[in-house]
Amino acid sequence: MFYESTKEEPVYPIRTAAKILNISVHTIRMYEKENLIIPFKKSTNHRLFSKSDIDRINCIRSAINNSKISINGIKTIYAMMPCWELMNCAKIDQNNCSAYLDHHGPCWANKGENTKCASKNCRDCSVYKDYWDCGSIKKFIKTKLKSI
Ligand code: SF4
């Protein structure tokens, strides 16, 4: 019987993901190095990708190729996501966290060592999973502003 994986299930090895996306393995590795993506890592350190990962990388590709946004630009957009709101971070955590204080990259690349995020697996976090395109980030900010 044919097995249908869920959207979040990491099933594609990096070569397959590259083939689906029509890009090189090197490009996917570069996106990981730049902290745009967090692939699932097996105990052997091999990376696996889900359908959601493929959508996310497609969105990154479109931002670069169609909207002419640089990788640094994408990192800055991710940095604008108010993760401390979603995570309900205490003021003391916010003031110890580069993700709150700086705007140079996504929170998962800048989380403070002594904050509640320190031991979390960012791949499983809603900030990483649910807010990876401009539309969803803007929607979140609009909802927040409405409630002020
Ligand atoms: S757990 Fe990771 S992705 Fe989630 S808010 Fe903290 S640093 Fe960001």
Structural descriptors:
148 residues; 2 domains; Multidrug-efflux Transporter Regulator, Chain: A, Domain 2; binds iron/sulfur cluster; 10 helices; mainly alpha; 3-stranded antiparallel β-sheet; globular
Instruction: Assess the beta-strand content as a share of residues.
Output: under 5%
Order of helices and strands: EHHEEHHHHHHHH
The total number of structural domains is 2
> Class by helix and strand content?
mainly alpha
Order of strands, widest sheet: 1-3-2
N→C terminal distance: 52 Å
The hetero molecules present are: iron/sulfur cluster
Question: Helicity, in percent?
Answer: 40-55%
Largest sheet: 3 strands, antiparallel
Poorly predicted sequence stretches spanning 5 or more consecutive residues: none
**Please, how many helices?**
10
Q: Compute the CA-based radius of gyration.
A: 16 Å
**Mean residue pLDDT:** 90
* Overall outline: globular
- How many beta-strand segments? 3
